[in-house]
Batch of 4 targets.
Target 1
Amino acid sequence: MSRVDAALKASGRSRYVADFTLANMAYAAVARSEMAHARIVSIDTSAARGCPGVIAVFTAADVTATPYGRALVDTPLLARDKVRFVGERVAAVVAATRHEAEYAAAMIEVEYEPLDAVFTPSEALAPGAPAVHEQPWAYQGAAAKEGDPINLIHRGTHGSKEAVDAALASAAFVVDHHYTTQGVHQGYLEPQACIAEYISDEEVRIWLTTKAPYRVREMVGKCLDIDPKKIELEPITLGGDFGGKGSPQDAPLCTELSRKTGRPIKMTLRYSEDLTAANPRHPAEIDVRIGADEQGRIVAASMVANLNAGAYGAFTPSVPAPHGAVEIPSYRVPLFYSEANRVYTNTVPRGNMRAPGAPQGTFALESAMDELALVVGIEPAELRRRNLLVTGEADASHVHWIEHRGLETLEAALNAVVPIEPPEGWLYGRGISVYSRPTTSMASTSLRLTPVDDGCLRVETPLVETGTGSHTVLRQMLADQLGFAPQNIEIVGVSTNDLPRDAGAGASRVTAGFAAVVDVAAKAWMNRSRDEAIVVEVNEDSGVDVGSYTVQIAQVAVDPSTGQLKILELLNAVDVAAIINPLAFQMQIDGGATMGVGFATLENLDEADGQVWAANMGEYKLPSARDVPRYKTVKVPGAIGLGTANVKNIGESTTPPVAAAIANAVFDSTKCRIRDLPITAEKIYQALKGQQ
Amino acid sequence: MLISSPTSVEGALEELGNENTLAVGGGTSIALMLKNRLIEPDRLVLLNKVPTLSGIDERTSATVRIGATSTLLELMHSPLVNAALPMLSFASSRVGNPRVRSVATIGGAIIHGDPRQDLPPVLLSLGATAHIVGPSGERDVPLSEFFLGFMESAAGEDELVTEVTVPRVAGQRTHYTRFTPGSEDDYPTVGVAIAMTLDSEGTVRDARIALGGVDSTAILATEAAALLVGHRPSDELIAAAGQSAAEGANPSDDQRGSESYKRAMVDVWTRRTISACLAG
Amino acid sequence: MNVKMTLNGEPFSAETPSDSLLVDVLRLNGFTGTKEGCGVGVCGACTVIVNEVPVASCIYLAALAQGQDVWTVEGLTTKDPALLDAFVEKEGMQCGICTPGQVVSAYALGIENPKASESEIREFMAGNLCRCTGYVTITESVRTYLASK
Ligand SMILES: Cc1cc2nc3c(=O)[nH]c(=O)nc-3n(C[C@H](O)[C@H](O)[C@H](O)COP(=O)(O)OP(=O)(O)OC[C@H]3O[C@@H](n4cnc5c(N)ncnc54)[C@H](O)[C@@H]3O)c2cc1C
Ligand code: FES
Ligand code: FES
């Protein structure tokens, strides 16, 4: 079965936001802060105003003072009084062409008075630290209260620290380690772009690189005091998302500029701007403590994470604890304490990225599990075997899944692994890592089904195809349940005005959401009166908790003289229900693992001093076709899924476990434990040298 | 900004005589610098229409002449370069990606002056010479005197490199190592290029060791090479050469490694590259 | 500056600032199949063919294309349908933003080394980044295309 959009995409005929041009359109570009933290003394826009093609220049004084945000509303359209990170929007130019706008933006001169800055959560939480925001509690949606540490956005805890401390004090074995992870970018190859056309308060149209159009229209409407229902987000094709395209990004600003200039405004980021001013993954500092009895059975565990949320908290994941960075979803943990602190710093604001929190947390937890196996004196796989949840048990956060298939998945992985010879003179090692993730049971989306001539069906969906093949999956599910041939169903993306709702792609919810809405659609289709279009919607929680396990085994080789690491193979054993589109499913496994490999070994925004040094793709390296290891996939079929289609999540399953699998394999080969990502040749080399 | 497309070297030199003017080979570096507003020239002189700047041939039986606008793709596929200077074909095939190689020229590659580039150390170790033509005449500058510093070369703003000549040495053994411990699709953390000749006993008659990525330009490790000459290198001697090369390097910290790591890697890869040459 | 070239086999000319890059000339004149990702010659999304070799149009001066033979994804997939068929059949894509560049590079490999082995394919295609797929289906697509030649 081929993808609905394959030929369009491969021939260059799919239209992405950057490909659209409207009549009378003007272009915006922004001047960005070169300071991490500074008071704005003055902004001189006179040179910019005199540049060719310039229509208007704006600073904070010229645009709405209302900030925007998701849960926490703290982000200004343009920096007001002070700048809080290198890359922050300070002023905007509207000009006849993109180049003229960019040229003029570079002519804007800003005088700053530098302020002390904080770059890591530890610095930001230290007593007397400079305040990134003077009154963070005053923002709408703020969780912090006056009197909290000044840069704390949110502290989420779960369980009793005292109880866990006491249990650890008397445990037969305890590990207690500190792990750190770097800032990485989603790496979608389509930079963020927006076109906004403000016609009146009754009519606003936006083309935005977003996967969450209904949410964006709420946020834009609130910020600009326009009824969200009057804002239409147009259907678009998205060039990759991975969590990074859920914020409105520059849509509030572009809409405001359109309102002020009376022209449609287009703004496309240069990739360097995307790397330095969008919403990359949170760097994390994580402390893991695990205690076990004589047999290696966990008696108590604690995970405490400080997450660097950057200069604005608007798109840092807003769910209360347990946050993905401090979850123990796979093991039996009688006593569990978790704490996640999201902290303001003078760095790029953070957002969601594939399985938010989990890549950081799983690196820490699964590394610590291996460290525990070592002190208990049993094999890493055996330690996991003794602690994996079985069906009927609740996890550390008291969640009950309908079944647990971690043990089967573990055994399948172990049975499938075939040792690979390392190159001559290289050390060989093998590492294991386990991850499990719930399938979101909340379904919220809508569809319109219209019978058309010759027994064909036209199906409209507001769900943005982020590239995962979701529209193809939808077509297949409808074909199966409505009795159409897939080629007789046409899937059409429509705007937010055309259908009532969609929660947005992400959080592994798409396939499950479709499963629910297709079930409703199938019933409505049977009962419809002839040849009428029907609209169906779901907005409900199925109440069924299913989840899926991934067990990874990495085989690596290390050159002891240089520390160079080669991943010989990465095996993914995944616990699956029905698979609608096998190729798309496989690409989620491979693509997810590749992103994990980048996080584990390569990618790094390199921003220790508040400046993103890896500010272009020559420096911010994504894994290339040569860099990816050989993948082996083992599917463990037979799981219970959701809906008649019987499906489970996959998109966020294979990214989180990679870093620990590799760190554990590196330890196996070298006896060096790397607790700081990424795992570079130099770190391994230095650790090996330290051993001598 | 003006664009000129001369069809002769004289025409090109005349254009280069204008203020704030730059020559363009493949333009891969120029385009990036223009984009980032690192340069704002008033005029660009395109060299791609000057026929005498292209072509690769045997100047004499002992020299290969490479026209300045020869692309790296041409260096990869030229039968002459493959036969006479296999290290140069190999190194060209490792630069960037296919799109860079099909456009970037050897002239641009030596004048651009980023110390992490691959061709400068390779051409240094091969003993290549740049032929420079300018308003005040012509001269030959050995590459050992060509790289003056970061993005700085012996060719003046109003001068052209017309060709690079490379000696063709019978029985020469060469090896280039490009150490990329992160992504393979990246500049090397450390590059080591070695050319040496041995006599029938295995005694080193002549050796040149050049390093990339460890100073403000590509450099020759002259002392390390001198250690080898006149000897049949033992493991100890090879180790001493590696250490000498490492001591002569002057790397700086960046994303690809710290100063001390790069220095250590010069040691390791100089040793390994010498051994690879000796093994044939 | 007026650039004239042969574009996808047809005469083409456009008025453009002299420091324009080829990617902008193409995209502003409706050839939006050529994408701009990184803008620094690294990702390959902007790949086009100039005189039978692949070029990163994001770092290729439009002035250099003067009088040359330029092909974009739109023209190549029309001229050589096997190219499109291979990527459709093997699903060499997810979001599709890198796909036009992958397709054009596959065509370039077909010229440079039509008998490329799996590792040669990976090496040549390494300059075309993809964040979505993990590369397996893209490599398959390229192999399928080369086999059709
Ligand atoms: C994505 C990317 C990846 C890269 N990766 C690598 C890599 O892995 N290894 C590596 O070694 N390099 C790499 N490079 C750099 C590449 O080698 C240089 O950009 C290229 O060699 C420059 O050649 P050019 O002909 O395009 O130079 P141009 O951009 O045309 O010119 C560069 C400089 O040389 C001058 N110039 C050019 N020709 C002449 C001449 N004949 N006479 C006088 N002056 C002249 C120009 O005025 C300019 O100052 C990479 C570049 C890119 C864009
Ligand atoms: S956009 Fe040209 S190579 Fe990335
Ligand atoms: S398909 Fe999305 S980047 Fe390749």
Target 2
Amino acid sequence: MSVEKLVEGILSGKRRELARLISLIEDEDAIASEVLSRLYKNTGHAKIIGVTGPPGSGKSTLVTRITTEYRKREQSVGIICVDPSSPFSGGALLGDRIRMQEHSLDDEVFVRSMGTRGHLGGLSRATSDAVRAVDAFGKDVILVETVGAGQSEVEVIEIAHTVIVTDVPGSGDDIQAIKAGIMEIADIFVVNKSDLPGADKKVTEINAMLDTDQKMGTWRPPVILTNGRTGEGITELVDMIEEHFAYLASSGQLEARGLRRSREELEQLMEYKLTRELLSTLRGRPEYENAIREIALRREDPYTVAERLITEFLVKCRE
Amino acid sequence: MSSKKIRVLVAKPGLDGHDRGAKVVARALRDAGMEVIYTGLRQTPEMIVRAAIDEAVDVIGLSILSGAHNAIFPRVMELLNAEGVDDILVVAGGIIPEDDVPMLKEVGIAEVFGPGTPLQEIVDFIQSNVKK
Ligand SMILES: Nc1nc2c(ncn2[C@@H]2O[C@H](COP(=O)(O)OP(=O)(O)O)[C@@H](O)[C@H]2O)c(=O)[nH]1
Ligand SMILES: [Mg+2]
């Protein structure tokens, strides 16, 4: 499918073209960057919401409920669910759609499941490009579900305006986990499964933890109790998302974040392209392979060799 | 290194009350390196086709036990045709009488796997017939 046809299709709201573009992004096809570069000026309109937390805490259920609420408010919704690929087979079982049945025929909702694969440019690259594609497609709100644990999830979440961290009653251990990492990224905490014993205690614990936090800025993350099964607390949650967005806009953080993200993205892209250029001129050449052998044999050192190769590359570039 | 993967929608149309069989197949496909999107029970043909398009799958695996395949499978094919989709391989499994198989193949179901088909056979069939 041509770049032209993809760009036009996506801008005129054709799901199939959007779906194709996301596949090209996942497959790291060069056409994807061409299409995305053409779409870039049509992006930046969607409100991006990250939902992260342990498996089984109700993320998909909440995403569905939040979608229902946004649909009531006449907003269109894109959903991207990221699940881990098997490190052994590279395959993945993506089951988040099971919870999203009620939106399965709504034209204003687009749902896409992604495996983490072993992405060259990192999971965050593929996910943020997919989000960008959905943004260009014209969705008002984009929800990104990721399993919260490692670094890659934290990276994915950097593209979100508002990050929701989910938790459930019971097991006090995860307070430690929250403290250790996810803490800094949460704009809103959700204690889901309010029907289970210990829900109020969990809310109190998280609040206590937040009250002792030194690093907190001017936004103090609220803790909201929800029931994914009945939908209790969801209106409040969506109101809070809106409030957070308004806060970002009025405090100037929206603009600051936009600048920071653009800088990061530009620098990452340059780094990636430069490295690829450099390596493509080196790899496979006998001198290069030889230098590597010399380093292994301790007859050369990697510091000097790196310095030399880069200087040679730069000199060649200037010619 | 290309990170291309075969994407499969495993769908359960009809009123079947359980999906053990479909889940076993889904896991086997994952273990063969495919990305399997599983959508749960009681999918209508419309839901299946919509999910297949949004997820840009290469394969749809339909699994049914309840005997409604003669109505549902042709309907899925009809909707795919109406959307202009001709690059998705559609296979079926479950309890499907031998006599119905020719008609299903006639409407475009590439293969019908009966109960007890070795999982490897399904994996092999998909890998060698996927349309890309
Ligand atoms: N008891 C109870 N179960 C819930 C609630 N919300 C979701 N669940 C169930 O928790 C399980 C996992 O939910 P899911 O949304 O798939 O979690 P995810 O893995 O975080 O995406 C499912 O069986 C849901 O039905 C809730 O508020 N209360
Ligand atoms: Mg989920």
Target 3
Amino acid sequence: MLDFLKTLFNPPPPPSSTTAKERLRLVLLSDHLSLSPETLAALKADLLAVISRYVEIDSSHADVTFEHRENDVAVLASIPITGVRERTQPPAQATLPLEMSAIDTETHAVQIDAGSESVDTQAMNDTNASENGATSTPVTGVVSAATRRRRRKKAQNLANRSNANAQQLGKPAQA
Amino acid sequence: MSGRRIVVTSGKGGVGKTTTTVNVGAALAKRGHKVILVDTDIGLRNLDLVLGVEKRIVFDLVEVVEGRCQVRQALIKDKRFESLSMLPAAQTREKEAVSEAQMTTVIDELAEMADFVFIDCPAGIEHGFRSAIAGAKEAIVVTTPEVSAIRDADRVVGKLTAAKIPLRLIVNRVRPEMVKSGDMMSVDDVCEILASELLGAVPDDEEIIDTTNRGEPIVLDELNKLAIVYDKIARRLEGELVPFTTFDTPNFLSRMLTIFKAG
Ligand SMILES: Nc1ncnc2c1ncn2[C@@H]1O[C@H](COP(=O)(O)OP(=O)(O)O)[C@@H](O)[C@H]1O
Ligand SMILES: [Mg+2]
């Protein structure tokens, strides 16, 4: 009975094999994250291109880094905002900065957990965004250059298709 | 004849590269293939001891590379498996004694004489590793189900992938009862973490130490359960699709008891 109560209030710790697996996942992730300077530059360029579609930014003071945190590794983007773009419609979902394919290296780009990014919108409104407006997104894996190319192509196809659909429906195609 | 050139590597030392090289090589020789094992661990020669041929060494890999003898003169034929031979490492030379180009030349020459050339790699990812993989076209990455061995194996997997050398994993020293109780990562866990294909899983077994003491490959004893494990690995290398049996499947008797109880 006492044992039962004990286990009720103190659930047993996870088996050590589970702990080992989780620790390895994290440590290998950060081992793999030693990205080449070219890849890091490409990531930064892609990121800036996307953000500048929504807000005006000062790309010369933008900073993209990786941070090792308690339970994950995060990509941190600190990008000063200099103004707001006038926009009547949000851009199409599948549009990626395709022309902006930046430098294509045989190395790696990062894979992120899109479900749990924490953009502090309050801080983003602050014009001094370089201090407070950092976007922090957990990194969940590393993507090979080949995979990136495939994804870009897929996104391009999707974008083309949605533009074609829009035209069929007599709507203006979205940029 | 142009045989397969397979490097056996791990990153971390002491996980079972030499044991694997000797036993997988012997299992293939037993199946009728001509097999040559090459010890590239210069300064830490070991394969000769594990195979039990240490008393018959005349020349070594470095002497072959330096042109002091023919490669055929340096090969030591195993007396138990007539299609098995080995090329010993130099024991008293610098680790850097063999360059990548020299290694490639020797391995190419050996591949003309055998169906399988196994290159037993030194630990680490420095010069010795680079020259050991230089002559290889395939790789076996050996790891144990432990965090440090897996992390090191991951480095090696990355380097082999960059060198475009296809690889498969051998998970060594698995303890099924610990896997069952959650105290050891499973073979599937290891393959998942390393995102690599499995070639075989070898249980942790005291008998390995016993047979190594004697310098006898475990596959000499056909009925030994590890001999069966290594034979399966040999067949997979031949290209046969040998199903993977998990160790934790209950043995025949306890399975019968379960059926009996259920019925
Ligand atoms: N499956 C196994 N079960 C028990 N002991 C093993 C097993 N595989 C290897 N060993 C032991 O582990 C030690 C290191 O093995 P070895 O093959 O020399 O490793 P490496 O060549 O990677 O340094 C040896 O003492 C060997 O007998
Ligand atoms: Mg060894």
Target 4
Amino acid sequence: MLQVRNASVFFSARDGRVVHALDRASLDIDANSIVVALGASGCGKSTLLNAIAGFLPLSEGSITLDGQPVASPGADRGVVFQKDTLLPWSSVADNVALGLRFAGVPGRERRERAEELLGLVGLESFADAFPHELSGGMRQRVGIARALATDPKILLMDEPFGALDSLTREQMQELLIDVWARTGKRIFFITHSIEEALFLGTTVVVMSPRPGRIVAHFDVDFVRRFAAERDVRAILSAPEFADLYDEIRSLVHRPQAEAESRRMVLQ
Amino acid sequence: MTDLARSGSRTSDPADRPKIVRLHPFGLDGARTGPISLATALLLLAAWFLATHFRLVPPLFLPTPQEVATQFLAVVEDGYAGATLWEHLSASLFRIFSAAVIAASLGIPLGLAMGLNRWAKGVFDTPIEFYWPLPPLAYLPLMIIWLGIGEVSKIVLLTLAMFAPVCLSAQAGVRSLPIERVNAALSLGAGRWQLFRTIVLPSALPEILTGLRIGIGVGWSTLVAAELIAATRGIGFMIMSASHFLATDVVFVGIGIIAAFAFAFSYGMRLLEAWLVPWKGKS
Ligand SMILES: Nc1ncnc2c1ncn2[C@@H]1O[C@H](COP(=O)(O)OP(=O)(O)O)[C@@H](O)[C@H]1O
Ligand SMILES: [Mg+2]
């Protein structure tokens, strides 16, 4: 289990002021769950993910993965970035197998595993292509395969589909659910789309900015329903979906609305 | 049915190929400049020919192309100043090559270290920033006093001239590395050496190759200065020696040879770049 306890992060802004990017966030990510962090831009989602990935130390609080404190990046936490970070000089298969190469896995085996993973994300015929020959959605799929290659305990995804068009994005969401259903990986997923959060999450945590805070938890089951029935339309048109959508929508907008009204009073 | 058949034959018939298009490039991105450059060269040659033919410039200042060509053949046949053309050429090439190898094998690792390590940067930044804008001719006398008039002082002079661009570009290569790429590798379990070997080095390679290309160019332009040091062989020496006798045609032969070799090297480096970093500008 991944546990985040009272995690706070303070940055220093360029003018020397202190930015309170994350305020006492606590979170559990259990086996076989997809926890989605949802919030407007600047509310500390990436900060939280970077801390879990080990790219960023916490100012206060703790993060543990299966009881071990998280201090630095490691192959037990696979990361998929919004901007693709594939190596332009390596073929798709070599990119997927990069983590295996770091782990000292021999070339033959690396190739087999890479092909297997490319099959999982539907890119089996692109093993020998180069990243610049692929579309944005395909590159993100390679990124997912690469993060899965080292068999991490958890997959961390920072708005991975944020730069994709909505049609590709829908395909990618379904692909991610398939990967999740087949591998049983736990996933921490960041988005600013309420619909994406509801569709993908087994848990949705809503964050609000200044200071970045988790303001609500929702347990959701649309993703399990989709994995079983594979009927997107039934889910999107379900009344529970619309209700939750509205509830979260008002939550996401509330802190800003309050801030605005306060400012108006001051004026 | 007929439509299908027709459209099928369209792609297979070479005479009726579809019009191939590509994105409008920005800047020059692979546009063909060869014919333009060739035309410019011919134009300059024609101007030279006309200027000398109509005696617009005294022959002592500007020999005719025919004279230069004759002199070139004479130098090829008989050599110049007691050495064959090949001896002059190989002396110069040896100096440039040795200096390039030394400059690269010191400059690349040091530049990478300076891009990665606070101490390396702190220690070496000041001396390099201090010396590299100096013209080689300014510290040439010191080279002679310290190292004598043999091969060593010439090669050291060339090395110093080539070192700075190589070292600075290796540093710039490290600086251009996006942090996300580093983080991605770390979260895939890369160790320090693996990170350097598989991420830092290839990411810096395009800039390093550019630095080498500039370095070799600087080397050729410093060659004449280096061969001022009591040389008896070398293309630079040949030019200097000829100038003492106002043998303008030999000066032209020497300049032509240096230009041809510098051009060939630059072209070779570009081929090397296309081969080693085919992804440059594509990601
Ligand atoms: N390295 C940094 N230095 C200073 N401020 C930062 C830094 N990174 C993020 N911030 C600030 O912290 C807040 C949260 O950022 P982030 O976690 O990237 O938000 P999100 O991913 O939700 O859009 C923002 O106000 C941002 O400006
Ligand atoms: Mg973000």
